[in-house]
Amino acid sequence: MLISKMKRNIGQIACVAAAICTLTACGESEPQTSGAPPDMRRLTSEQYRNVIHDVFGEHVEIASRFDPLVRTDGLFAVGASKAIITPSGFEKFYNIARSVARQAVDKDNRAVLIPCAPADALRANEACSRQFFTEVGRHLYRRPLTESEMETAVSAANEVADQLNDFYSGIEFGLTGLLVTPSFLFIIDETEPDSSSLSGLRLTGHAKASRLSFLLWNSAPDDMLLEAAETGALHTDNGIERQVERMVRSPFLARGVRAFFEDFLDLEKFENLEKDTTIYPAYTINTAESAKEQMLRTIVDHTVNQDAPYPEIFTTRKTFIDSHLGRVYRVPVARPDGGWEPYEFPEDDVRAGILTQMGFLSLFSHPGRSSATLRGKAVRELLLCQKVPDPPGDIDFSLFNDPNAPSRTARDRLTAHATVPSCAGCHKLTDPIGLGFEQFDGIGQFRVAEQGAIIDVAGDLDGNQFADAKSLAQAMHDSPSVPACLTNQLYSYAAGRAPERDEREFVRYLEAGFSDSGYSLKALLRDIATSDAFYAVSEPKRVDDGVRAASFNDKTKQELGS
Amino acid sequence: MSFFLHSKKSRRQMLRSMMGGGVVSLTLPFLDCFLNTNGTALASGAPIPTRFGTWYWGMGQTPGRAVKDKIATGPGIEFLEETEALIPHKDKLNYFGKFNMPLDGRSNYTHFSGWVANRTGTAPEAGGNIPAPTLDLLIADEIGKGTRFRTLDVSSVGMARQNYSARNTFNRAAAEIDPVALFDRIYGPEFADPNKADFKPDPDVRMRKSVLSAFTEETKDYMKTLGAADKQRMDQYFTSIREIENQLALQLTKPEPNLACVVPTRPGELGPDEVVRVREIDSVIETHKVMTKILAMAVACNQTNVFNMVFTDSFANVRRVGETYTHHLLTHEEAIDPDRGYQPLTYSFNKASMDGMASFIDIIDSIPEGDGTLLDNCLIFASSETNYARLHTIDGVPVYLIGGAGGRMKQGMYVAGGGDPITRVGLTAMQIMGVPVQNWGTKSLETSKTISEVVV
Lengths: 562, 456
Prior knowledge:
Chain A is mostly helical. Chain A has 24 helices and ten strands. By secondary structure, chain B is α/β, with parallel strands linked by helices.
């Protein structure tokens, strides 16, 4: 049994004594799950960058954009499991691969990035090519290259070197080839036979290593993790536990947590964020970048560095600011050079937690004004995992278009929605929450009045009354839906898919563990990363003609003649 | 098992033979559209291909202010004040009014169902769902194979995701949103100027193609080891590789001389302020002109036969400096002026869209080609996702077919739909472009009725 699971049971015993825990949390071991068929996930832009930078160094530039993923079940990580590489998308990958390979063999870099030097740089050198592709290929493919793959890369490199009279051109062309293969561009669930599992399959050690490293570090496995895969350690509870513990303690965990929250909070929207600078002179593109960075710094510091309870991200007064944000928050900044500094809002300040930061407030607003509806919808859908229905297609807005109506504040305007049955059903889900943030304008600057009228920010969140944004933040902190939503989405993010039907009990088990840990995100990550469910795979999908599609282990079986 | 492991030749011998000229000597696929004998010959004597494009704008039109309704189909379109910029082009386009978009009980996902049903012939089952390929890709499958780019997708509104061309939900290319990146992609080092006297194939290109082919052969092993869904994804991956291989092969072949092809000037880099203002309508108009010039010349230079241009996105996230409302918000929240009978600010954006369409036509029509202009050899499907955005209506969604389609389409016609499914327009466009399709669409959107009144 894994150490974390043992700890869970000890905690559960104490919990029973205190008679405060749920039935699920008390004495239940991890529910058995059958997993999902092996899958393949396209690397996200950030994962691609991380892998390249980890292998070749931060100085390697990746200037182009990738085709965007489709946000599915609330996560790009789930969309990555369905992503298709379009012709123009492949063209981008190909051009980026060429650029990366060119930089890797650049005269300034080759001594560092290529582990050997040929005696004659004007000719092919098979031994040196092989050494390069052995080392680099293992990290790019997250497993050793097969002999066939190695032969392709080395042959290509040698042939090009001979034709162009340049060993390094050979490496460049071969590396370009590696970087556009599915084995690099997709995280592939390779499996092997396992008589102890329900499906008769298990992930290979290398596939497990990839799952772990992309979850916790948002990048490819490092040498130690690959070694654990190669020695079979990742097929033992102890081996997994040791690696997870090492990875959770690593500074790279911050990178993994950042990636999750960027996805979970849909922060990709910052790419398209635009504000009218005549209405909001404090807004610049730098301010927007700072706003996103502030959210992520606050969250990572809170959940990783401090290991503080997750719901407190909605109430913490501690954050980080720079000079750009100082203008929006109207607070003095000690470092006018653009650097970051810790900052704590005073106890009597109107702000507390990430929902009162510029990032959230500006992201879910219009270019020239705030939006209670967009903010309320974001809270419901992103943080509480509650779907707000789409507006009806045949709505008649003339009901709200009375030019003589005395509407000065957002509450005045939105009251009309609440009086029309076809609108009220959804707007009552969003507006009462969003109106709580109305003291912050479209970029999050504080205000007390709109068009001369005092803004009323009282409301309720599912029956919990609040008087202002701070008490709304407290209501979020206290909502049981908040940690439940995070748990579900973090597991979906880890698995690259929404939980299967038979995994619901497992997700509840994770929720109970999250609660037992005092809502430690690190503990939840440990629980997921050390669970059996995280690595479980079921039978591969079947092809249409009824013949079972071969899984990766079938290939192994065929080659072994079994 | 890899192709090479089965081969008696060594992998290196194979590579060498692939690099040794075999690839270069392959005959490139002869463009289907080159077979069009209706086209006027290029200077080289080769026929001019017929190209297909789409042009998109968000938020439809202002009722009673765009195009005068007619009961019967016939020559002559009466443009009203919102579309007055189109009057100079009245004989180069057709307008399709009063066609319906039945969704068979499926929800009207606002600003989404309209373009999906119009371009795929099927109503989406959910927001974000794209149930079938858009018509531009069906056409590209017919006429796009022999050019450097199967399609070129461009947006002047700065939102790469908002490209209304897709094979399905997860197979949707991103639009090019940066004029400089668009220029470099087309006219960068890989561009072979057809009018340059000296043409020397780059040996690097030959090797790049061979290396890519070698890795592709290696990758094909995965085809045998994947589940059905993944196999489909891998099939698309290989299709994408073939596109690049095709691009590389074209670089090894001297292009036909083409007097219409004049490489445009590379646009200047945008300053930081311009990036911030990317969705301000005046900026969109300017970007649209710059990108259209780059795109149109790419078409004239035979870099692609299919193109998609988005003027504004389906949620019309465009605005004017100093205004708190975007075009989209205005359609819903601006009061109707009781004297004028419409929403004046919304109208101004709708009019700007039609001005944008006119400038698009202007630019394409300004490029001489053969005995006429590039526009004579194009068919452009211009549409929005809604008719009256204030009410999200989709029946009566405006559609224009622009250009001469290489002599295959009559122009200057008002086509009265009489409540027929809008898919008749898409079907007709595909048939004009040579797609062998007899009927198109599903459920109530299915049709086999060509609009013969516009077909030559």
